[in-house]
Amino acid sequence: MQIAGAVMGQDVRTRIAYTDTSVFGGVFDEESEASSKAFFSLVGSGRFSLLISDVTRQEIAFAPDHVQAHFEKLLAFVQLVPVDEPVLALRDAYVAAGVITAKWAEDAAHVAAATVAQADLIVSWNFRHIVHFDKIRLYNAVNAMEDYRPLEIRSPLEVIDYED
C-alpha cells in the first residue's frame, strides 16, 4: 500500500532548488551521471523549481560544448537569480568569517545566491567547498548572523527518488 507523503507528515510541495555548475557537468561524468540525470528529471516533472545565478551561467560558458548544450535544453525550467549587492555582501561575509577563502569566492557566491533567493536547498557535487559537513554548518551560522534562514545543502544523491 502506498501512502502519500502528505499523510506521512512530509511536505510534498515543489521545492526551490539552486543548482551550481557541477550538477550540469555531472550528467556527463561516469560517477555522477545517473544521479544528475535523475535530479534533472525531477526538475522536469515539477518536483523541483530550479534556480541558477549569473555565476552558473558564466561557469557554463567555459564548460565543454556538450555541457553547454545540456544547459541550454534546461533553460525553460530555470529562473535566474541576479548576483546583486545582497548576494555579493553575503558572499563576502562567508569569506570574512573564514568559511571559504577568497580564492574560492565564486563557490561562496553560489551559496549566497541560493540563500538570498530563499531557495529551499542548493544541489551540488562540490564536496570540497559547498556540500561539506563543516562548511554547511558555517554557511548557516553566517546566514543566521546576517538574518537569513538556514539553507539545506545536498548532493543529487540525497534528493533523488529511489525505487523500493
Tell me what the structure shows:
The model is unreliable at 1-9 (pLDDT under 50). Helix 5 crosses helix 6. The protein has helices at 21-26, 33-44, 54-60, 65-74, 85-96, 105-116, 133-145; strands at residues 15-19, 48-53, 78-81, 121-123, 152-154. It has one domain: Rossmann fold (3-Layer(aba) Sandwich), CATH 3.40.50.1010. The chain is α/β, with parallel strands linked by helices and 164 residues long.
Structure in a nutshell:
The protein is an alpha/beta fold. The protein is built from 7 helices and 5 strands. Helix 5 (85-96) crosses helix 6 (105-116).
Key traits:
single chain; 164 residues; alpha/beta; Rossmann fold; 5-stranded parallel sheet; 5 strands; disordered N terminus
How is the largest sheet built, in terms of strand order? 3-2-1-4-5
Q: Give the helix proportion (percent range).
A: 40-55%
Low-confidence stretches: 1-9
Q: What name does the CATH topology carry?
A: Rossmann fold
Total of helices: 7
Number of strands: 5
- H/E element sequence: EHHEHHEHHEHE
N-C termini distance? 12 Å
- Reading off the top of the CATH hierarchy, the class is best stated as Alpha Beta
Q: Give the mean pLDDT.
A: 91
Could you say which structural class the secondary elements and strand pairing correspond to? Answer: alpha/beta
Radius of gyration in whole Å, from Cα?
A: 16 Å
CATH-scheme architecture: 3-Layer(aba) Sandwich
* Beta-strand content estimate: 5-15%
What does the overall shape look like? globular
**Main sheet, how many strands, which sense, barrel?**
5 strands, parallel
